[in-house]
Amino acid sequence: MEHRPRPAKRRPSRRSLARVLSLNGSEALFLCRCLVVVATVRLALTLFSYNRVRGMVTRLNARQCASMGELRLVAWGVSAAARFVPRATCLTQALSGQYILARQGNASNIRIGIERGTGEQLKAHAWLVSDNHIVLGGSVDGFAHLVDHGSR
């Protein structure tokens, strides 16, 4: 989904690996879980349609609002794990974060938009939003909102 230019340096650096090795047990375990989810979602998006993957992610019954601490933890874990998964786009990260939040019973939405003023080239982006807080995907400035896909 993401068509925004990426920085040239995408692979994990030695510094990133050193940070991973310095995590405590619970942080490392959470990062490993995030890595498995991001890799699985990336593979699923390669093999299946977005709607089918979204259906798999949102089949969990998630109704409550996450705390800011939970949102920050998910944002950190998914962003960090995505550095180790090739082509883990904004859509991959948003769906991964939505799944992790839903496993905890927390509701969220995938927001999809397109960049304004890009001429003929369509540039789409996806965000993970929970209780009007952007969890993953950065600023919505410069984008026109298209659709929200929420937890069931």
- Helix percentage range: 40-55%
Total beta strands: 4
Rounded average pLDDT: 85
Radius of gyration: 15 Å
Main sheet: strand order: 3-2-1-4
Give the biggest beta sheet.
Answer: 4 strands, antiparallel
Structural classification: alpha+beta
How many structural domains does the protein architecture include? Answer: 1
Beta-strand level of the residues, as a percent range?
15-25%
Q: Return residue spans where pLDDT drops below 50 for at least 5 consecutive residues.
A: 2-9
Shape type: globular
The arrangement of helices and strands along the chain is HHHHHEEEE
Topology, pairings included?
Blueprint (H helix, E strand, L loop, with lengths): L13 H8 L3 H23 L2 H8 L10 H15 L7 H14 L5 E7 L8 E7 L2 E4 L6 E8 L2
Antiparallel strand pairs: 1-2, 1-4, 2-3
Helix pairs in contact: 2-4, 2-5, 4-5
